[in-house]
Specification:
With 391 residues, the chain is α/β, with parallel strands linked by helices. It has 2 domains: 88 residues, Urease, subunit C, domain 1 (Roll); 288 residues, Metal-dependent hydrolases (TIM Barrel, Alpha-Beta Barrel), CATH 3.20.20.140. The protein has 11 helices and 23 strands. Strand 12, helix 5 and strand 13 form a beta-alpha-beta unit. Helix 2 packs across helix 3. The longest helix is centred in the first third of the chain and has 14 residues. It is globular and about 65 Å long.
Length: 391
């Protein structure tokens, strides 16, 4: 495979912004990052591909660690083909890694969905499946959101062991309610197996959150949504996340799930490496011209979010990662920070190895977009998933 050099770029490396840079890819890896001046002086083999991006942004591929579905395909389909199609669609939107996220379902349906995710690994035609995110079933019945109450369960270590075995060790992250009885034992089990635990769909008191932190629950699911509110006598889950810098958290940056001014508050109080952009996107996201379903219930798109048609409850997001980055920038977040939230932070928190940064030795997972946030190219492991670049 010939080398690829993308040059004349505004590089968003996942930790900093650098003007007039070039990035060199050989095989699956980034082998060098250098200035445009050095590019003009450098000699390349004749078969290298050169792309002048004319100042466009070049960033690490986006990593979505909380996503249920996309373009008409979702985890509830329990199908290897659906997961491969979801991967293909996400790759066209700049996502290079994702954690397919499972709703609480019957044990049989959860098993089938887990097996489908595992079966799709290695067959992806777009974004890579980084691992499976279980959003439950050990969550609070008082903070369900759109989750179905009949599938919420008390902590059951044997059931967790069962899910882990079915996943063949591929559960990456799991949303839990820290206040549930038996949570400490579950947390210790998960952490010993490298599973990142996230506080979410929780009615935890502030003390419950502190106990969860002591057990290793140090990440939070869709901050502000489906969690106990901030109160002056009990800061709750929201207060704990704001108060403790060691807690990281997801944000859904669609302007509907969380008011933009609250994201500005979070940015003021939270270290920059502790914020993770997610979409929480549903199967119906970017799906056109048909009746829309998510979690096997009919939904409708209203004012930029999906609502359950039967009662109007918010069912999830219609966000894409590139749109989330754009929203953050429009709300005043520096673009290098917004890209960090979408790439290097999830890679670090989910322990995904050499992903999420544009530095030599890392995976060549790359996205290119212009100053209007139109996606020009995406690449996973040195292979273009989408390419509208001129040579």
């Amino acid at each position: 495979m010939p080398g690829i050099c993308i040059h004349n770029a505004t590089l968003l490396a996942g930790y900093a912004k650098m003007e007039r840079c070039a990035i060199l890819v050989e095989g699956r890896r980034i082998v060098d990052v250098f200035s445009e001046r050095r590019f003009l002086q450098k000699r390349f083999p004749s078969d290298y591909e050169h792309y002048d991006v004319e100042g466009s942004y070049v960033a690490p591929g986006f990593i979505d660690t909380h996503i249920h579905g996309f373009a008409g395909y979702g985890t509830e389909d329990a199908s290897v083909d659906a997961m491969v199609a979801m991967s293909e669609g996400l790759g066209q939107y700049g996502v290079t890694s994702f954690c397919p996220t499972l709703y609480p379902m019957s044990i049989e349906d959860m098993d089938a969905s887990i097996r489908a995710c595992v079966g799709a690994m290695g067959k992806e035609t777009g974004a890579r499946i980084a691992g499976i995110h279980l959003e439950g079933p050990f969550i609070s019945a008082e903070r369900l959101g759109v989750q179905r109450p009949e599938f919420v369960r008390p902590v059951d270590l044997e059931l967790m062991e069962h899910f882990y075995e079915v996943s063949e060790g591929h559960i990456t992250n799991m949303t839990v309610a820290p206040e549930l009885k038996g949570m400490r034992e579950l947390a210790l089990y998960c952490i010993s197996r490298g599973i990142v635990l996230q506080a979410g769909h929780t009615n935890a008191s502030y003390e419950n959150m502190l106990e969860g932190m002591q057990a290793g629950i140090l990440h939070a699911t869709h901050f502000f949504n489906a969690m106990s509110r901030l109160h002056h006598r009990d800061p709750g889950a929201v207060g704990a996340i704001l108060i403790h810098p060691e807690l990281s958290c997801e944000i859904i940056a669609d302007g509907k799930h969380v008011h933009p001014d609250l994201i500005r508050l979070l940015m003021r109080d939270k270290p920059q490496d502790k914020v993770v952009l997610v979409t929480d996107a549903l199967k119906a996201t970017e799906q056109k011209g048909c009746v829309l379903y998510a979690n096997k219930e009919e939904v409708e798109l209203a004012d930029g979010i999906f609502q359950r048609k039967s009662d109007g409850v918010i069912a999830g997001s219609a966000l894409t990662m590139i749109r989330g980055v754009q929203n953050l920038v429009e709300w005043g977040v520096p673009i290098e920070a917004a890209v960090q939230f979408a790439s290097s932070n999830p890679a670090q928190i989910m322990q995904l190895g050499k992903r999420g940064r544009l530095v030599p030795g890392h995976e060549a997972d790359i996205v290119v977009f212009d100053k209007d946030f139109s996606l020009l190219a995406s690449m996973r492991g040195g292979v273009f998933l989408k390419n509208r670049l001129g040579r």
